[in-house]
Specification:
Blueprint lengths: L2 H5 L4 H7 L13 E11 L5 E12 L6 E5 L15 H4 L12 E5 L23 H15 L5 E7 L1 H12 L7 E4 L8 H15 L15 H13 L3 H7 L3 H12 L6 H9 L17 E6 L11 H6 L5 E6 L18 H10 L4
Parallel strand pairs: 3-4, 3-5, 5-6, 6-7, 7-8
Antiparallel strand pairs: 1-2, 2-4
Helix pairs in contact: 4-5, 6-7, 6-10
Length: 354
């Protein structure tokens, strides 16, 4: 069993974080990594950081129309280069054919090879939010890569929430928007409650020591695994995968054994969602929008009706809701593009510039 098969059935939390970049033979152009440094960056708090490093991966010819792809929390741009995501989207004839588009996958502030607390500032690193992440992405594209227009902005989970913000803050910059595994509504209900408990579980651990720990606090591994199980993976999927206690224990053991990130980086990443609320700005979105969610998404349950109400405020918006099954993975479902590759291809044709 290869590494993808070994972990695809646990959680998106493990799926995107364990797979090494470029770990399979892809049929699209080779990815290239780079860095751009913002000489000065002012955060929403008013704090300023000089020489803010922003890392990114690109695929394809920079003279082609650009596609921006945004990763989820505690993930990176390169971690999305998996057989079931990039392998189904970036190849010849596929919806985001990398011979026709210039694909940009940045690492958000606070993660991967971009500037983050664990680089040295630790808990003195500026507090960032999703608006800061979007601003940094905009500056990376326009100042760093010279990109003035985007064929598409597509984001998963945290990246999906940022996609909504992109449409509001830079409404004339893109031809189309695809926010996935997300909603534009205020961070609230179980989604925020679990995130708050996740962060506080680590911060209240005496070993955390206000971010001045010398070894990673034990709460990090336990809290992150609890959060992953509670908010991703799919109810039907877990029942099929772990119908006995022994099988359930094996899944937990696998998740507990997964590599962990730095505690300060982790706390910052999850806390950054606290003030997210794209709902007030929906009327500013001009580009056609295709929202893609899964019916068993634990963080964005469709039965609340909030997504449907939000889409009514947009002129050119539709929703693809992937039905729940034992084969879907709750909030992690859309890491596999199989369920939406055809609709995404249709959407790209529908929104092609005339």
């Amino acid at each position: 069993m290869n590494i993808f098969a070994a972990f695809r059935n646990t959680s998106i939390y493990i799926l995107f974080s364990l797979l090494p970049a470029f770990c399979f033979a892809q049929d699209y152009p080779a990815p290239h990594e780079g860095d751009w440094t913002a000489p000065s960056f002012t955060f929403h708090t008013g704090e300023t950081l000089n020489n803010l490093r922003l890392h990114y991966v690109t695929i394809g010819d920079p003279t082609k129309p650009a596609v921006l792809i945004l990763h989820g929390t505690n993930s990176t741009g390169a971690s999305m280069l998996t057989p079931r995501f990039a392998g189904k989207l970036f190849g010849p004839g596929q919806p985001l054919d990398a011979t026709k588009y210039f694909i940009v996958l940045p690492d958000g502030i606070g993660i991967g090879k971009s500037a983050k607390p664990s680089d040295g500032l630790r808990a003195r690193f500026p507090q960032y939010d999703y608006n800061d992440l979007v601003l940094s992405q905009y500056r990376l594209l326009t100042e760093g890569l010279g990109i003035k227009h985007l064929r598409l902005v597509l984001g998963y989970s945290m990246g999906g929430m940022q996609t909504w913000l992109w449409g509001e803050q830079y409404p004339d910059m893109m031809d189309a928007l695809v926010p996935m595994a997300s909603q534009p509504t205020e961070m609230s209900a179980r989604n925020w409650m679990m995130r708050r408990m996740l962060v506080e579980s680590i911060q209240q651990d005496p070993a955390y020591d206000h971010g001045n720990y010398t070894v990673q606090p034990p709460s990090l591994r336990l809290a992150s695994t609890m959060f992953a199980i509670a908010t991703s993976g799919g109810t039907l999927a877990y029942q099929a995968l772990a119908p006995t206690r022994a099988q359930a224990d094996k899944l937990v053991d696998t998740m507990l054994a997964a590599p962990q990130t730095d505690a300060n980086d982790f706390v910052y990443q999850w806390a950054s969602s606290g003030d997210y609320n794209a709902a007030p700005g929906l009327s500013r979105i001009k580009a056609p929008l295709l929202a893609i969610n899964s019916a068993d998404d634990e963080r964005n349950p469709p039965e609340t009706g909030t997504m449907q109400a939000s889409l009514k405020q947009l002129q050119h918006a539709s929703l693809l809701l992937v039905p729940a099954s034992a084969e879907t993975r709750g909030h992690g479902t859309l890491a596999d593009a199989t369920t939406y590759v055809q609709r995404l291809g249709d959407f790209m044709r529908e929104t092609a510039p005339q």
